[in-house]
Structure formats: C-alpha cells, structure tokens
Amino acid sequence: MRYLLLAAKVLAAIWGLLIIAYIGGVTLILAQPDAAGESWPSDFAVFWEAARFVLAGEAARAFDLEALRAPLFLNKAAPEGWMPHWFYPPTWALLLAPLGALPFGAAFAVFTGMSLALFYLALRPASGPVPGGLVLVLASPSLFSAVFIGNTSVLLAGALAAVLWAVREERPVRAGLACALFAIKPQLAVLLPVFLAVRGRWRAFAVAAAASTAFTVLAVAVIGWEYTEAFFGSLGHWQEERQALQTEGGGTPNLRRDLITIYGFMHYWGVDHRIALPVSLVLIACVVGAVGYVAARTRSFDALAAVIAIAVPMAAARALFYETAFLLVAFVWLWRAGAASRMDGRIALFVCWFGLPRALNYFGVDVAAIWAPINLALLAWACWFALKVAPRDDVEPARTAQ
Asked: Among 26-30, 297-301, 393-397, where is mean pLDDT lowest?
C-alpha cells in the first residue's frame, strides 16, 4: 500500500503540472493573432463564449450554433468530429457570466480551481478511511480527463459529495442547498428527490425544492425570458442540428462515441432509435427503482451513498464520458463501507477509480461501445453489496421525519 500511495502522489503531481502547463499553453496560443479554438479545452471554450454573450446582453445568441462557432474558431473549420454547442438552462448562464469578463486562460484557471476546490472540500470529510485521504482520488485518470475538457462534472460530483455527507451528518439545510446546484444540469439530479424522500429527509427535500426554485427564478429574471424561451425551444431539435453539423465532412460524431448512457450504448451498436429510446427509458426507470429499494432497505449509509454515485450517469437521459467523475465519489464511499477487504470489492474500486478517460479513444476504444454494461454491472454489484454484505453503520434505513 505504501508504494501504491507513493505512485498515486507522483501521478497526482504529474496531473497537476500538466493542467498548469495546459492553461499556460492555451493562454500563449491565444495571444497569437491567428489563434483559433483547435487547442482549447472544448467544453469550457463554449462556456466562456456563452458567458461573453451574457455580459454583452445577447445571452440568447449562445443557442445560435453559427454565432457561437465563429468567434471560437475565427471562421476556420472546427476539428473533425467536434462542434461547439450550447443547450444549458439560465441557471448555468447566470453562474458562468462573471467568467466572461476574464481572459480565457484566467477564466479557465478560475473555473478549474473552483471546481476542484469544491470537489476536494466536499469529499474530504468522507475520505478518512481511505489510505492517503484523497491522494488516490486526485490521481485518477478520469478526474484528469474531466478537468482537461473543462466540463461541469467535477463541480457536480463535488455537489453530490456535499449532499451525501450533509445527509449523513444530519445537516438538512446544507444538503438542500447542495442539491440546488444541480439546477445547472437537472438531468443528473433525477435520483436526489428519490433518495431524500425514501430516506425520510423531508427538511432537506423542502430546502432543495425551495432553493432550486429560487435559483431558477433568479436566473430567469437576470438572464431574461428571451434566453429561457430559446433554451426550451432548443430542447426539441438539438440532436438533429448537432448531428448534421458534426457529420459535415465525414467522421464519427463525438456524441456517438462519448455517450455513456444505455441509449448511447444501443445507438452506437446500430439499434434503431425507435427501439433504443423506449428500452433505455424502461431501464432508467429500473435503475431509479433499484436505488429507491436499496435506500429503503439497506442499513449501510456508506454503501447506499456509493450506489447513488454510481447510478447518477445511468439515471440520466444524456451523460457523456466525463460524468464518470461521479464514480470517484462512489470510490470513497465504497472504501468507507469496507469494499477493499474483498476481492470483488477491490475490482469495483478499481473500476470506480479508473472510470473512462477520454484518452481511451486514442487507442481505438469508444466509450459508448462498452461503458453502459460495465456501469450496470457495477451498479448491480453495489446494490447487492449494500443489501447483503456492507456492515451496518448505525444509520437507520428510512425515516418518516427529519
């Protein structure tokens, strides 16, 4: 274990240096007169440009893919298989807006630093039993991959960690406020009301509902109704637009390669949309039902927390490779629940730690081709572990009142 921790520390240090070098390199590249977006962390590049639209009083222009594309690539061709897109609610536009006032390098550094800080601080209280604390987590290739692209997954994984620890420590207000952060990407919050309701955490449930509503109302008031209308209007046809744009000039769209949902797996292997969609919705309902059942029956909160973190991407209608960052939350809680004492538990811990870094694509492995069955198997094992194996940690299986 000592050598494992040493290797993890070295790897975490390497990841940190690479991120710092990447931020500096991008900043230098963008200082060139003809710089375009090929070298940008793709997701955050879109966030930054949308934030600039918000500050300019033209927030709704973020939904115009051509308007978004032109400043990012200086009217040059986008890298093959990638096209900037924006389909986010006003809550995320409101939080991002201040970053639009900063140069790109500084904005990316602030965004990355704040995301990692929330992730670290929220997960640290639960990491006591993990050897080396969060060193192993920070050395995860899936965490580096998520940070490198500049997405919301690290931020929301931190929010989930905060929810779980606050519930365990009987802090309903903190739990509800942390839940409200999921208003920036509500498709990932499907399990949270189920979890709080089944466990009888009604005060946390009420705070989450009130805070999410207040956050949304404030965002709509500040960003404007025109943006909100554009957001709802984009939901019905975003797939067709992006598919058409991404396949110009040939190549496989990243969306098809990077989806980690049940639907993404079936779509990748050629299952017709009319079959894949209803089947995936049924399986999502089964995932939600399974999590609800475990929440009602298990006497190990630590194992239940791991189940929820594993299930978050599976219960979402749309999730991509960077959402495997949620498995790092599961890694910590599984370790707390004693999974490291068993061979099957150690395998599950490795899967949670490794996740699916984007770098696998460079070795010819498309994450959509393999991930959904792996995640479903991991979730099934975690449910069994929570119900049959994990030791009771003195948290009652359900409550009728907070």
From this structure: 26-30
Rounded Cα–Cα distance for residues 26 and 7 (Å) = 28
pLDDT band at residue 361 using 50, 70 and 90 as cut-offs: low
Concatenate the DSSP letters of all residues of 181-233 into one string: GGGGSGGGGTHHHHHHHHTT-HHHHHHHHHHHHHHHHHHHHHH-HHHHHHHHH
68 — pLDDT class (breaks 50, 70, 90): confident
Residue among 382, 398, 379 nearest 390 (CA):
382
What is the pLDDT of the chain when averaged over all its residues?
A: 82
CB atoms within 10 A of CB 113: 12
Q: Which of 118, 110, 138, 101 has the alpha carbon at shortest distance from 16?
A: 138
Percent helix, percent strand, percent coil in the chain, to nearest 5:
75, 0, 25
pLDDT at 184 over 90: yes
Could you tell me which of 369, 326, 8 has the C-alpha nearest to residue 152?
326
Residue 38 burial (10 A CB sphere; 0-12, 13-18, 19+):
middle
Whole-number Å distance between alpha carbons of 325 and 95: 21
Q: Residue 189, Cβ neighbours under 10 Å: how many?
A: 23
Q: In Å, how far are 42, 95, 173, 227 from 92, measured between CA atoms?
A: 17, 5, 22, 12
pLDDT above 50 (res 222): yes
d(CA 205, CA 197) in angstroms, rounded, equals: 7
Choose among 143, 177, 142, 172: nearest CA to 159.
Answer: 177
Measured CA to CA, the distance from residue 212 to residue 314 in angstroms comes to 22
For 13-39, what is each residue's pLDDT tens digit? 666 666 666 665 555 545 544 444 444
Residues in CB range of 54: below 8 A, 6 or more apart: 62, 93, 94, 96, 97, 100, 223
**Residue 399: how many CB atoms within 10 A of its CB?**
12
Residue 244 has pLDDT above 50, yes or no: no
